[in-house]
Amino acid sequence: MRTEVCRLLSTISKIRQQSTSSQLITEPTTVLIKKPSMPSVNSAICGWQYWEVLCYVPSNDVLKLDDLVDKVTKLLLTNGYEVTNSNTQEYYDDALKAFMISVEFRTIKLLF
Question: What is the rounded distance in angstroms from the CA atom of residue 109 to the CA atom of residue 5?
């Protein structure tokens, strides 16, 4: 899964730094963000690491957003990751001229 996810990912800061219209979101894009981890209540050796996948589509292609979110969710579930079902609502990013929905998932993290 990591190679497939790495192939799909890019960083949001690099995209935002681009100022010309040719550098805006022109095709479906995903961005992986590492969120804070949480210790487990029942265990002192492991906890949860939360992640977020930002799914972007160009503003003129908003109908593909749900397909991209479904593809990302299926990819995570097929590879054994736990999707938290706390997706954001559809959001229009004016700087990128793209629509976005984020998908949150978590992995087990050893604390020692």
Answer: 19
CA gap 28, 33 in Å, rounded = 17
Whether residue 29 contacts residue 10, with contact meaning beta carbons closer than 8 Å, is answered with yes
Ranking 32-41, 48-57, 61-70 by mean pLDDT, the lowest is: 32-41
Q: Is the pLDDT of residue 87 over 60?
A: yes
Measured CA distances, 19 to 25, 46, 59, 64, 96 (Å):
11, 42, 17, 24, 9
Residue 76 CB burial class (10 angstroms; 0-12, 13-18, ≥19): buried
